[in-house]
């Protein structure tokens, strides 16, 4: 491996993870269906898959895809700026549209449905909250775009890795150990919401989240990749087919539900996700996904963000125009999913990529 290459199966898995989150957030109340536990687990599992992929991709980028020690192939400043360019512009745009949604609901929707009343309250018409959201400094409340909590964790991981590059840590093992140490120390210092620590270092509460450990699992995956410690084709294919159904079965039948307490997600969900990503990597060069799926993987970030904007609006349109009288829940989910993918892909092609390509010229 003498140069970084596109990992097509990882791109496809990114789309699958995004699709899981999109489906989990489908508003089904208009059909008399309340919160479904298994859907919530599906969405959370998709996020864990994203985190493992991020933990893998970041050293893959920083080390050039063929080493895990020695000089980094990028400086700390350029690494950080390119990560910021990658995620902030389109996130800022979608978040602005969320504020606009709250404004529209307040002034122009006389009878808001429960989903848009919940997703777009007038309290979100706030410049301060908007700035906190897009800079990932909303330490004491959710982001305006509710799924922004995941991006806050991502951005802290990117910031930490940039710091490690600046320290010139020469081996990925040192980075893994230091990252885990920081996470554990943050857990200890913020135990029972220590107000003194949190007032001075509010970001420690986020660093202390158990999900942060999942990024280290992704970094470990990168070292497995370099070592060539991949699964045999038949084993990898079997895992790739069954790891999501197996996870859902364990959650649905309460086989693993109560394991791990607060660490349930990194320990149990992370276990299933790790094997899924490992299987996808093991099949690189052996099985190549369809180009359309790879494209949707490229667009997965915009799809992920966009669905958080439109899920309540699709539900509202179905109610306001009485479309629920002419459709069942499965048709609704299909329409909602297609709209999310189509709009997200459009934003990816005409907003996300052009902005990123333009800004990269300056870093």
From TrEMBL:
Keywords: Acyltransferase, Membrane, Transferase, Transmembrane, Transmembrane helix. The chain crosses the membrane at residues 12-33, 39-63, 84-105, 143-167, 174-192, 212-228, 235-255, 267-283, 330-351. The keyword Transmembrane applies. Residues 8-344 form the Acyltransferase domain. It comes from the Bacteria. The keyword Transmembrane helix applies. One of its GO terms (molecular function) is acyltransferase activity. InterPro entries: Acyl_transf_3_dom (IPR002656), Acyltransferase_3 (IPR050879). This is Acyltransferase. The lineage of its organism: Bacteria, Pseudomonadati, Pseudomonadota, Gammaproteobacteria, Enterobacterales.
């Amino acid at each position: 491996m003498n140069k970084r290459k596109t990992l097509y199966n990882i791109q496809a898995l990114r789309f699958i993870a995004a699709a899981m989150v999109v489906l989990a957030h489908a508003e089904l109340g208009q059909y008399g269906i309340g919160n479904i536990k298994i859907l919530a687990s599906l969405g959370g599992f998709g996020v864990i898959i994203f985190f493992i992929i991020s933990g893998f991709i970041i050293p893959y980028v920083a080390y050039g895809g063929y080493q895990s020690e020695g000089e980094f192939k990028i400086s700390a400043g350029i690494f950080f700026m390119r990560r910021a360019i990658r995620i902030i512009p389109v996130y800022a745009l979608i978040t602005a549209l969320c504020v606009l949604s709250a404004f529209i609901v307040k002034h122009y929707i006389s009878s808001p449905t429960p989903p848009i009343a919940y997703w777009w309250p007038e309290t979100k018409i706030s410049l301060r909250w908007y700035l906190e959201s897009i800079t990932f400094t909303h330490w004491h409340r959710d982001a305006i775009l509710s799924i922004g909590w995941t991006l806050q964790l991502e951005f802290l991981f990117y910031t930490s890795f940039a710091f490690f590059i600046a320290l010139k840590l020469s081996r990925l093992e040192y980075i893994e150990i230091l990252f885990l140490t920081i996470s554990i120390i943050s857990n200890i210092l913020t135990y029972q919401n220590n107000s003194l620590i949190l007032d001075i270092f509010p970001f420690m509460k986020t660093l202390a989240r158990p999900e942060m450990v999942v990024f280290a699992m992704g970094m470990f995956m990168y070292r497995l990749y370099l070592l060539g410690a991949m699964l045999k084709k038949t084993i990898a294919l079997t895992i790739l087919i069954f790891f999501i159904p197996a996870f859902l079965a364990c959650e649905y039948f309460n086989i693993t539900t109560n394991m791990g307490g607060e660490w349930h997600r990194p320990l149990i969900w992370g276990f299933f996700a790790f094997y899924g990503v490992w299987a996808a990597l093991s099949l690189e060069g052996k099985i190549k996904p369809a180009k359309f799926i790879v494209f949707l993987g490229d667009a997965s970030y915009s799809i992920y963000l966009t669905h958080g904007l439109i899920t309540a609006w699709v539900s509202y349109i179905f109610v306001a125009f009485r479309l629920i009288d002419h459709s069942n829940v499965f048709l609704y989910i299909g329409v909602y999913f297609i709209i999310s993918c189509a709009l997200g892909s459009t934003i990816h092609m005409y907003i996300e990529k052009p902005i990123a390509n333009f800004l990269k010229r300056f870093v």
